[in-house]
Amino acid sequence: MSKQGEQSGLSGESGILKGNPQHNEPRVSHEHNMQEASTEVAASMRDNNRIEAAAGREGQGGQAMDEEQAGRDKRAEGMAQAITGKPKARKHRKTGKRSKNERVTNLISIVVGAFVIAVSFNSFLLPNDIASGGINGLSILIEHLYGFNPAFIQWAINIPLFFAGMLLLGRRFALQTLVGTIFLPLFVLLTSHWGVPTENPLLASIYGGIGVGLGLGLVFRGRGSTGGTALIAQILHRYTGMSLGLCIALMDGLVIVAAGFLLSPEQALYALIGLFVTSKTIDIVQTGLAMSKVAFIISSRSEEIADAVLHDLDRGLTRLDGHGGYTGDNRTVLMVVLSQNEVPELKRLVQTVDRDAFVIISHTAEVLGQGFKLE
Prior knowledge:
- The structure is a single chain.
- This protein has 375 residues and is an alpha+beta fold.
- It folds into three domains: 3-84; 99-287, no CATH class; 292-364, Alpha-Beta Plaits, CATH 3.30.70.
- It is 68% helix and 8% strand.
- It is built from 13 helices and four strands.
- The protein has helices at residues 3-19, 21-58, 62-84, 97-125, 134-146, 150-169, 171-190, 201-221, 229-240, 244-262, 265-287, 302-311, 343-353; strands spanning 292-298, 318-323, 330-339, 358-364.
- Strands 2-3-1-4 form a four-stranded antiparallel sheet, covered by helices on one side.
- A hairpin with a 6-residue loop joins strand 2 (318-323) and strand 3 (330-339).
- Helix 4 (97-125) packs across helix 7 and helix 10 (244-262) runs antiparallel to helix 11 (265-287).
- It is elongated, with a radius of gyration of 35 Å.
């Protein structure tokens, strides 16, 4: 191209840039947006570095970092919209059918548990004056003194406790007790005319304790509560610093001591039996009847024992590094989790490989994972 043509082209381009504001505005606006975006990115990086440094110095800046992170996310969304003209896509947490089914299952478990508690209460505990702790036991004492219906007594106590729990413990915890608070007294009222299987207080305390423990275990598996003294114990635990187990034992103990004075010392002893059976039944419902074992094996022939466990017993194992307390020698410790009926076979295999092996076998409350139950 000739110099004249080049000059003409430059002159034409210059004319477009200088003389036509309609062509000039989009390019200037785009450059302005890019400059603002670059400024925002630099500011966001400086903010990020400043917050991380502050968190590193203080060690407790989690909440501040969350708030700053939320602000940076909003600014990033604004930058994306300014540059591309489209809002930043947001990730939505999926709420599948599993969570809905789980909520329905939990609700059914709480309702069924409340029904089982009510039947056990009316069939065994109430007719035999066994006040084995909790609001149920307190309602038995009040019914014995004044003749009020236990269902109305439970409602009268649980409803104020529900609102107190909502104020002091939070809405989430209170909602977990709502279903049990409503349905347990209702079922107590509906089953109040059912027959009494036994008038023997010992049998009543045992079977009543089993029934109440079964019902409470179902309620707990449904992530619910029946309110009552458990709610009072939660409040005491929150505001006094006492352990939760101690608070629950204190509440139940006060009811049983009151039963010893208002009814008879013998009735209080039956109530203790019922309370013990209830606690054990709750544990069985929570963890199941299938007891598992864990074995720790220390041997100089650990590789041979591991091979026997893997191939003959068909169980997995974990190798742990151990050191002799007296000799200081390095030893491999084999940890094997197995069912109760597999223990004799494990002993036989270990004895076959190394008669001097040191074996420790203990109970496990619950095992989850491959080869065992999953929840």
